[in-house]
Amino acid sequence: MENKTEREIKQEIRELTLSYFNKGKQQFAVNTAVPKITFDIKGNRTAGQARYSENRIRYNFPIAKQNYESFLKRTVPHEVAHIIQRTLNFNSSPHGIEWKRVMRFFGIQNPERCHDYDVSDVPTFRRSQKFRYSCACSKKHYVGKAVHNRIKNGVEYKCSRCKQIIKYNKE
User: Fold this and answer.
1) 138-151 confidence digits (pLDDT tens)
2) Does one domain contain both 154 and 89?
3) Annotated catalytic residue within 2, 54, 69, 79
4) 29 and 81: one domain?
5) This model's pTM is above 0.85
6) To pair with 109 at 20 to 30 A between CA atoms, which of 66, 82, 140, 163?
């Protein structure tokens, strides 16, 4: 890939998505609207996601940029195939017979469920940090950073079961 801008890459992915969608819609005679295309997936696990209920395809731009050619050949048809597959048979398995049939029509002879892209330069998605607390009845309580900071500043939280103040486990 030559030095393309983020805008150019996203536009090419959008155009390719629409091209696959129109081919699939015509071939399988499905009656569904063009899906919304967004680039809002974070982290280094998920390259793309089809949300049939929202008629939306989500992509992970950092993974797309780092694995550009392969992303165009594998992830784009993969997600479009999900939209077509759910229109063909709503109750079918996400990576089942209908999905594989659509993928083969798109030219992917050995469709795979998951990507194996190089994600070494893609930032990981950090979930919010949790802090472990306990109480007199030994119930484990997990709180977020905001509650943890309030407790450090003197606010007391009680267990709903034993009604005792929860204490921080520094383990």
Assistant:
1) 888 888 888 999 99
2) no
3) 79
4) yes
5) no
6) 66
